[in-house]
């Protein structure tokens, strides 16, 4: 009985040594390979429920790339990395409960958005970046989405006109940076 316990202890110690050796090899590889370290860091920060799907996508894509590389000359076709690929897509829920929209909360959000807009407009680098991002966003959506945004902007302009008409005349705070100098008001 004592010999069996000693053998089990020796086996457990050998397995521990193997595990520690593998851990040391992995640690050395991670320390010497920045990309592998980044991959592990991304994996660790990924939501747990996403991991099997993302790993499956990577496995499938890498297998396809390896197959493509092996047959490029024969089929005269090749694959390459798409640096703009997305693994996550946006999905809009169609069952919106209108009761979740509170008028006062929407008004407060509108005021906040207008105040942020004023900040964006007065920092030229941010303003140019915002305009560039907006142009690209318009290219990413379909015409129906653009038309909805356009109608919302018209509604916003109508609300501005109504608010101005209800108040005594005041000097405009600022004219748009991209408005020609001849049309700017003083």
Beta strand %: under 5%
Give the tally of structural domains. 2
N to C succession of SSEs: HHHHHH
Largest sheet: none
Shape: elongated
Extended strand count? 0
Number of helices: 6
The residue ranges in which pLDDT falls below 50 over 5 or more consecutive positions are 181-186
> How large, in whole angstroms, is the Cα Rg?
30 Å
Arithmetic mean of pLDDT: 83
Category from helices, strands and their pairing: mainly alpha
N-to-C CA distance:
100 Å
* Helix percent band: 55-70%
Please give a quick description of this structure.
With 186 residues, the chain is mainly α. The chain is built from six helices and no strands. Helix 1 (2-32) crosses helix 2 (34-45).
Could you explain the architecture of this structure?
The longest helix is centred in the N-terminal third of the chain and has 31 residues, at 2-32. This protein has helices at residues 2-32, 34-45, 51-75, 103-121, 124-140, 143-166. The chain has 2 domains: 2-75, no CATH class; 102-176, no CATH class. The chain is an all-alpha fold and 186 residues long.
